[in-house]
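Below sits the subject:
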Amino acid sequence: MSWNFRWLGIGVLAVSMSVAGCGGDGADLSAGGSTPSTGAAVNFDEVVSVDTRSDLAYYQIQDQAEALLKAGKFDEIETLASQYRQSQETIPSGMWKLAGVYLGVAEVDEKASNAEWEKRVEKISQWTKSRPKSVTARVALARCYHDGAYRSRGMGWGSGVKENQWKEMYARLDKGARVLADSTAMRKQCPGWYAAAQRIAALENRPQKEFDAITDEALQLFPAYEDFHFFRAKQLLPRWGGSKDAWQKYAAQVANEKGGEAGDALYARIIWSLQKYAGSETLDELDGFDWPRAKRGFEVIGKGPDPFASANAFARVAWLADDRETASSLFQSPIGTHADFSVWWNREEFKKARRWALQG
């Protein structure tokens, strides 16, 4: 297939290939909260913020990678990335631990100054210059430019972004795109290259067919990297020009292709990845998903070594699906009063859902 890099804004660069056929502050909790006794009064105002065991392990990877970068221990970052690239280890949400390495080295704290972000770019640039054949360094640099572009834009709706913010955002995206274009020969070495390309193409608002070309090639090369599905489904949400029908058809299609319990689990993970974007004003974007299939998928995920990791997501999706019986069971045990705020929009939403589930 032919890959046209016109969207990168640096002219046409065609690459031919043959295709056959990337930390929380709550308590650590491995298995949830208190279970209300039958008939006992429930304190719905009690909420304990938690990080699951799996989340904490993921944050530790990020912290480790960031510390190694700051210390200039580039070889050790390479070893860490290679380890997770080869093992393909994931956390229950489906994210590869490799993605945690890239998050750690490429993204600065959202409260950090612009000078701190520039310092991060400088450090990763040193890494790329000292390791000219390292795909890891180049993915990190592209992701860092993407992070900087989002910092320029801000996290609000596009209508509130000022002209100077757009200008700076596109300038940073262009730099990230150039890093990727200069390293296309390395792209088959790491799924992180494609994850970076997805994100830059999306933020640049490139045509859907160009985004799809990136994602299709990525999935041919790295079919086990489920984040490609998560990100594509996100781009099919109505707020980004898609529709409820579009993302739901896609989720069903890829789950059907995988088939069986693995397909159900993938479907549930796609819903898990999307529900975090649904706040009070955008919950309707998730209307109409296949709840029986999502439920089966969450039950499969819950059989893993860290069953609490998916419990809050399972409960929130059950709440969205109006399945009080399932939500009630989860809030009784293992969740109790323990809220994972990587899932819930805020404390009030958690309390509202828990009250609805347990009061009947």
